[in-house]
Design goal:
translocation; transmembrane helix; transmembrane; TatA/E; 0% strand; mainly alpha
């Protein structure tokens, strides 16, 4: 897709356009978006696994508890109900 030199040029253009003041905010929002995407992918994979277990007539396993994360189905991605 993109090589290292193309990504470097894009990064330089982004720095020039956005300026140094906006970069920390941009990095935070990119990190937050990546975490949300990862959580959604994990939830979709878990849901698929549960559906497969139900189709095969098995009882799905109890959900794993991951320290520091709280995910409920009735909560939006930004934490609001």
């Amino acid at each position: 897709m993109f090589g290292l030199s193309e990504l470097a040029i894009i990064l330089i253009v982004v720095i020039a356009v956005l300026g140094a003041k906006k970069l920390p905010e941009l990095a935070r929002s990119a990190g937050k978006s990546a975490r949300i995407l990862k959580a959604e992918a994990r939830a979709a994979k878990e849901e698929e696994r549960v559906e497969q277990a139900r189709e095969q007539g098995r009882q799905p396993e109890a959900p794993r508890v991951i320290q520091g994360e709280a995910v409920t189905r009735d909560t939006a991605a930004d934490g609001r109900p």
